[in-house]
Design goal:
The complex is a heterodimer of chains A (118) and B (111). Chain A has strands at 3-5, 10-14, 19-21, 24-26, 33-39, 46-52, 60-61, 64-69, 74-79, 88-95, 106-108, 112-117. Chain A has 118 residues and is mostly beta strands. The radius of gyration of chain A is 14 Å and the shape is globular. Chain B is 0% helix and 58% strand. Chain B is built from no helices and eleven strands. In chain B, the strands form two sheets. In chain B, strands 2, 4, 5, 6, 9, 10 and 11 form a seven-stranded mixed β-sheet that branches. Chain B is globular and about 35 Å long. The chains are: A mainly beta (118), B mainly beta (111). Chain A binds chain B through residues 33, 35, 37, 42-47, 50, 91, 93, 95, 101-111, and chain B through 32, 34, 41-46, 49, 51, 57, 59, 88, 90, 92, 94-102, 104-105, 107.
C-alpha cells in the first residue's frame, strides 16, 4: 500500500532563513509522482512543486526546491529565504501508477505547520 | 485559464438533514474530478473521483454519495447527515497525470 509520512507536526523558522520540511513515502510502483501543496489559514490548497520518479534533476520553482532522494524514498521540500507569508500548513502527496493509471488519485501526508518568525 | 468554484463556502446543518455541495470547473474539458474531506488539522482524505460524466468511484464507505451530471459539474450529497460528516470539503480537478487544482472548499458543521 502507498503511504506518505510527514514526521514534523510543526516547524519554526526565522524570516529570511531556509527551512526543510520532511516527507518520506512508501510505494512499490516504479512510476510515481510527488507533490507539495501549501494550505494557508484560508483553507485553499496551493500547488507548489512536482517531482516525477524518473526525473533525474531535483525540481525547483522559485524559492521552492524538492530534495528528491529516491533510494531513501524521501522528497523533502526546501524553502529558501523564508517570508512571513510562507506561514501555512504544507502537505506532501503522491500519485502512484498501479491501480490509479489515469485517475490521478493522490495520497496526502498529515501535513507540517510552518511558522515564520519576524 | 481554468477556474474551479465551490459553494456554499460555509454550511451549518442539523444531524439527519440532507446535504448538497456543488463544484464546477471552467476553462477545461473532460477533467478528472475529486472530492476530498479534511478533518481539523489533518491531511486530506479522498472520498470520490470521477473520470467522466456519470462515472463515480468511491474510495471509502460512508454516508455520502457523489454525482457528475455534466462534464464540469461534481456534486457531493447525503440523505441524512451524521455528526462525523463535519469537516472541510475540497473539490479538485486534474488531468490524471499532473497536479490537481483545488477549489476554495466548503466548511461543513453538523450539529
Amino acid at each position: 500500500a502507498q503511504k506518505i509520512t510527514q514526521t514534523q507536526p510543526g516547524m519554526f523558522v526565522q524570516e529570511k532563513e531556509a527551512v526543510t520540511l520532511d516527507c518520506t513515502y512508501d510505494t512499490s510502483d516504479q512510476s510515481y509522482g510527488l507533490f507539495w501543496y501549501k494550505q494557508p489559514s484560508s483553507g485553499e490548497m496551493i500547488f507548489l512543486i512536482y517531482q516525477g520518479s524518473y526525473d533525474e534533476q531535483n525540481a525547483t520553482e522559485g524559492r521552492y526546491s524538492l530534495n528528491f532522494q529516491k533510494a531513501r524514498k524521501s522528497a523533502n521540500l526546501v524553502i529558501s529565504a523564508s517570508q512571513l507569508g510562507d506561514s501555512a500548513m504544507y502537505f506532501c502527496a503522491m500519485r502512484g501508477s498501479s491501480g490509479s493509471s489515469n485517475t490521478g488519485k493522490l495520497i496526502f501526508g498529515q501535513g507540517t505547520t510552518l511558522q515564520v518568525k519576524p | 485559464s481554468q477556474t474551479i468554484h465551490q459553494w456554499p463556502a460555509t454550511l451549518v446543518q442539523p444531524v439527519g438533514s440532507p446535504l448538497s455541495l456543488e463544484c464546477t470547473v471552467e476553462g477545461t474539458s473532460n477533467p478528472n474530478l475529486y472530492w476530498y474531506r479534511q478533518a481539523a488539522g489533518r491531511g486530506l482524505q479522498l472520498l470520490f473521483y470521477s473520470v467522466g460524466i456519470g462515472q463515480i468511484s468511491s474510495e471509502v464507505p460512508q454516508n455520502l454519495s457523489a454525482s457528475r451530471p455534466q462534464d464540469r459539474q461534481f456534486i457531493l450529497s447525503s440523505k441524512k447527515l451524521l455528526l462525523s460528516d463535519s469537516g472541510f470539503y475540497l473539490c479538485a480537478w486534474g488531468t490524471g497525470y499532473n497536479e490537481q487544482f483545488f477549489g476554495p472548499g466548503t466548511r461543513l458543521t453538523v450539529l
